[in-house]
Amino acid sequence: MKKLSIPILELSNINKKTRKALIERLNLTVPKGDTLSVLYKNENNISLLTELLSGKTKPEKGKIFFKSDDVTGEKNAFGVVFDSPVLSKNRTISECASSPIVKRGLARSMAVVLVQKEAKAFGLEEYIDNTIGSLPKNIAARAEVFTAYMCSHDLIAINEPFSTLNEDERKTETELLINLKNSTKLSLLIFTKNIDTALQFGDYIMVVNDKTESTGIIACDKGKKDKTLQKVKELFDAV
What is the pLDDT of residues 149-167, one digit of tens each? Predict the structure, then answer.
């Protein structure tokens, strides 16, 4: 396996237990400019992990480092997209996407201008002043990712990307996100139960067990997809 590049995100010995979920001794690294796909079977654990990443809750033990800074428990340090929509249906894309940068101290008028500029890369300029509830389903899903991108142009963590969309919509949104990642310095952390999704996004694939401990990491060789797929299946079937 090739050596991972400089990390943009590091989770060090994360431990957290709730009534429904358990994370033990989780160590995870997202290389700068790359995508790490995490394959899992226990969705409660991953839901808890996305809450930890978003700062909604804190680990009982362990640290989260983003660009080498300790951001454990910090909200909006980077973008997180949950497996179900979280944006208010009564707010516009502009209001939702500007909110994270306004909270960092940028004047709202300047934040709105910045959001309008960045919306072009997502094909959202014509929808920017529309409320989330009025948008087509795929555009609303894109707005969730866009808002996460406005938290940080360096990293977005996504739980089950575009899983609520139909096949054609999911393909379109996935291609847009991958093209954005390839044309920028954006890193992605993808959580999924689907091997095909993991392969489609991932430069690396990490398989985790029911305690969210890593059972192995595979570097994806795009030129040897069948071989990579076989390795991933072997690891995933063993969980």
Answer: 999 999 999 999 999 999 9
Greatest pairwise CA separation for the chain in angstroms: 53
Instruction: Give Cα 57 distance to the centre of its chain.
Output: 17
| Contact status, residue 169 vs residue 196, Cβ threshold 8 Å | no
Average pLDDT, stretch 90-104?
94
pTM of the entire structure? 0.94
As given in the structure block, the two tokens for residue 212 are 């969210």
Burial call 152-181: b when 16+ CB within 10 Å, e when fewer: bebbbbbbbbbeebeeebbeebbebbeebb
Distance CA 88, CA 55 (A): 19
Pairwise CA distance, residues 189 & 201, whole Å: 9
Q: How far apart are CA 232 and CA 192, in angstroms?
A: 13
- A 10 A CB-CB count for 108 gives 12
In contact, 138 and 127? CB cutoff 8 Å: no
> What integer best gives the mean pLDDT of the chain?
93
Contacts of 182 (CB under 8 A, 6+ apart): none
The CATH code for residues 1-78+194-239 is 3.40.50.300
